[in-house]
Every structure is written in structure tokens, then in C-alpha cells.
Specification:
Length: 684
Amino acid sequence: MNAPVTSPTQVAIDTIRTLSMDGVQAANSGHPGTPMALAPVAFQIWTDAMNYDPAQPLWPNRDRFVLSCGHASMLLYSLIHLAGIRNVDAHGNVTAEPALTLDNLKNFRQLHSPCAGHPEFGYATGIETTTGPLGQGVGNSVGMAIASKFLGATYNKPGYDLFDYNVYALCGDGDLMEGVACEAASLAGHLRLSNLCWIYDDNGITIEGHTDLAYSENVALKFQGLGWNVVQVADANDLSALQAAFASFKSTQDRPTLIIVKSVIGFGSPNKANTHGAHGAPLGDEEIKLTKKAYGWPENEKFHVPDVTRKVFADTIGKKGAASSAAWMAKFAEYKAKFPKEAADVQSIIDRKLPAGWDAGLKEFATDAKGLATRVSSGKVLNMLAPNLPSLFGGSADLAPSTMTNLDGFGSFGSANYTGRNMHFGIREHAMAASLNGMSLSGLRAYGATFFVFTDYMRPSMRLSSIMHQPVLYVLTHDSIGLGEDGPTHQPVEHLAACRAIPGLYVFRPGDANEVLFAYKAALSIDNHPTAMVLSRQNVPTLDRTQYGAAEGVLKGAYVLSECDGEAQALILGTGSEIPICLKAQELLAAKGIKARVVSVPCMELFDEQDDSYKATVLPSSITARVACEAGIRLGWDKYIGIDGKFVGMSTFGASAPANQLYEHFKITPENIVNQVETMLAKK
């Protein structure tokens, strides 16, 4: 039965609604309908179901709340404000200041406001992830639930349940229509993530109109088929039914739960309910007054927060969360004394710091003319790292034998073994990338692997990992036409340029085994950006570093790999499997009396960060004859070679043939580099 309109509970719910209406109206932009309709649902989650301490918002075992329908952001901002979540400063210290003030809410969707149009991680404490692109939030929630299961299985001891947090994700029709959500739901069902609860707002409305236009699935039956517990609530305002639904979630120990809640979008005055206007546009001052009147609210008062509302939140989520976090802190203090090694690992995960000695297992590779494919040396480096980096966790989208990403001896993560560190994502690149963000947000150094061409499926999540400054690692193999006979559908051509175009994503394309080793050392030292490790299928020689520049140069993004005798007349720049081609071209040029320097450029982003003096020593401005060689497109190289520089690479899609034939066919050869250098020098 619904609470009477005068009850403290109803006042609190209506406060959420009116703050959402007022925020959208003040901005003259936004979506008021969903926050109004879902206010009772969110209230029930925050004040009853969820275990969260507003005074300790980074408490490691807090339940996570994800607003996957990010267009309803005023709902989350209102909750953060009313719950009294404290602000965490840039150093990770909890302050006495509120995470969001009423003034912040009044500046919804304005420049520099923490209340952005969609929730942005890092803008305000209490926002657990960046949401907005539909389906990404629920994808993240799967990664968070995986992290909780892994951390609990790995570090909990009898009497010390350090990690058993639940993850609640509020989603709508738009989320569930997206392919990434279906992939994520399938993965969650397979893994039997009983700590995961999605709440589906079944309101029947999308931007174009009623969902009947494009969506006629039996969602309950679909999720049952995916291995979920499904509970249905007929009315979003029925708090008792919601409470029972969350009780069902908590009592279900062998599968995730979907709670399907029927709501009426824009629940307010009778003449405006269930309209598109309430969904995607401000209500207007007159409609807001009518709605507030229906609530028994001061009609002309904006951003009104009754004292009773703050008391309701303080007496529920505040009191329960404070007791839970205090008990956890006391238990962790005991845990540190009894299990110091495990506690040190846990602390490094909490602090998001690499543990002492994390790189102690790294051993450089011996010179080898035959060499290794960089995907193979990558696998060896991952296994050097794993014993000393317990937060390293990840896997492949059904390609581990090809991507070489299995961590030997660390088991497979699954419902029978949540301590395993090898994830089998299945052929679900969308869900893999989205869940990696959730794992990273939970403190794991998460990695996911697939063929480089399939970053086409992953790009939205890769972009979000960069927006959120999460150090997700993408291991991307079969990086060029060098994969051969599989042909143009599987041969990346534009993908290096596309990944380099994502601001903040560090793209590494190492040229031999030791460049791979130092690329990983560089990548794991970056704690505020994602990285992409782009690796070859074909072998490349492991260079003799007594004859060539030290591979440690990778740490600066680009370095002089092979110097010529005397003053260089030309520069040859290359990456990855084209490095041997560049070195052979240097040799052929030398035989013709032409002096060329070879520069390896494994990471443009790192090189661009170096000071001007270092960059000038690697690429002297006096040398204008420049050729870049890479089995991708030219886009992005002009900043180093100039518009008059020459590029030896791809300008079309690939073809199906053995790799050596393809390199000859597309003229990615030492002889072509020589021709380009000679052409440039002849013009001087």
C-alpha cells in the first residue's frame, strides 16, 4: 500500500521529484519524466536495500549504484544531495563538505557544474561511473559484480568478509534494446552473479513514442532464458512490493536478478502524465506549479528541501551505512594483523597503487634473429607480471589461444571458482569492454583481449575508459595485413589511426620482444589513462641491443633505434612489425652512400609528452627528408614527417594471401622506403 501523502517517506520521495523538475527547468534542458517516475524506486534502493555510508563514500565494501539511464541524471544528483554524501578531495581524503550542494543542483547542465547532463565519474563523489551512452552502465555493473565476487573469493577469510558488496543498476528500455546490454546480461547469467540486480523501468516510452513502435520482446522470458531471477512489480509507487522484490534479490544465491517495474513516465499532475514532453523536455513553470500543488508542495518555491526529508535519509542510509562501514574498518584492522600479506594486496587495490616489487619478475629477452610474434612475447610478459601483481585480472573474447593472454596457473574465473584470474568473456567484445570499465572502477588492473580489428565493437567503452581516466589495458593482436589469409575483413587498416584519435588513450605498437616488455612497464605505470597494446601475429626478430638503441627508450614513446655513421641525411620512422623493414632499408641506403637514422615510435602519446629538447634529439628539425613506415593508414603521421614527408603503408583495405605476399603487393618493403628517401633527397 502506498504511504499517505503526508508521511515522511512520501515527502522524501516528492522532494526527489521536485528537485528533478526544478533542476531541469532551471537548465531549460534535460529529462524530468524518468526521475519523477522512478523516485520511489530509487528511494527504496537507497534508504532500504543499499548498504552505503554517505560519510565514508569510498568505503571499499559499499554497495554500488549505477544509473544506466543516464539521461535521468537529476535523479542521482538529488539522491547524492539528500543522502548527504561527503566530498572526497583530489587526494582521496573525505572532507566535511557535501559532494553536491543545492547550488550545484541549481546549475544543472551548466559549464563547470558537477551536475553534468549525464553523470560523469569524478565530477561528484557518489557517481560510481560515467553513464549516458545507453547500455554502458549495465555493462559496467557486470564488471563491478565480477570484481566483488573475485575480491571476496580471493581475500575473504573465516569471520572476515571484506568483500561481498552488491551492485544495483537502474535501466530503461533504451538500455535493454542496446546490444551491449544483452551481451552483458548473457555474461552475468552465465557467471551466476548473484550480487547483481538490474531494475528495469518498464514505462513503455522512448524518444520516438511508445515502445510498440520498435520493441515487442517478452523481457521477463528473455532474462529467464539468460539465467536470471526475474521479479515483477506492477506499480513503481508500491514500496511494499519493491521491498519484497529486493528481498527476493538478496535471497537468490545462484543467479543475478532483474526487477521489472511498471511506471508512468512524468508522474505528476493528471493532465501531463505519460507524455513525451515529460520525458525529453522541461515541464514548464505552470505545469510544475500544478504538479507541486498535487503533491501538497509550496507551489512557488524552487529547490525546496524539507527538514523531514534530510532526517529520513539520515535515519536510514546514513545510520545503517555508518554502522556497516565502522564494523568493516574494525574487521580490516584485525585482518591486517592476522593476514599481513593479503592485507597488503587489498590495500594496494584500495589505494589503486602498484604493489612494491610489481615488476620484479620482468626479465629481458635474449637476442634472437628468428624472434617472436609480439603477441607471444606479450603473453610471456603478462605471465612475468602476474605473480607480483595480484590485481591483474582479465581475459579474451574467446581468443586466448590466439591473443596469448592466459595467466598460467591462475585458474579460470567462473561460478565454480571465483578466485580465477582468467576471464572467458565469450564472443562478446561489447560486454567485455564495458565490464572492464566496471572492474577498473573497482580497483582491478583489468585487461581484455581480442583481434585488433574488433576494436570496432569496443570503441564506445574504450572512449569511456579514457573519459573516466581508468587504466584499462586492451591487448589487441593480429594488428595488420600481416595476419595474412583471413583477408580484409580481419585486417586492421584504419584502426591505429582511430585508436590514436581517442584523447587520452595510449596506443603502443612495439617492434620486438623487449619493446613489448618496456611497453607493459610503461602502460602499467600509467594509472590515469587506458592503454592499447597492439601486437603482431607474425614473428619479428629480437634485436641485439648492443647494436641498437636500448629498449628502455620505449618509456619515452620514441627513440633512436639505429644511428647511422656520421650526420643523418634522412629519418626513417616505424613501428611494430615494420621495424625490421626500416632497418633493412637503412642498410640498403648505406650501401648507396645515403645515411639514414631509424627511429622507433612505439607510442606517439608518450613521445608527444616529452620535452622539446628530447624530441629534437630524436627528430632534428634540420633533417627534412622523412619517411614513416607502418602497415596502417597515414593519418596521424604528418606531425612527425610533415606534409611533404613520405609514407609507406596502406591506403586501401587489405587482401587474402600469405603475409609476405601482401607486404610485397602493397609495397611495404625496404626497397620502397629506399625509393622514397632517394626521391626526397633528389629534390633538394
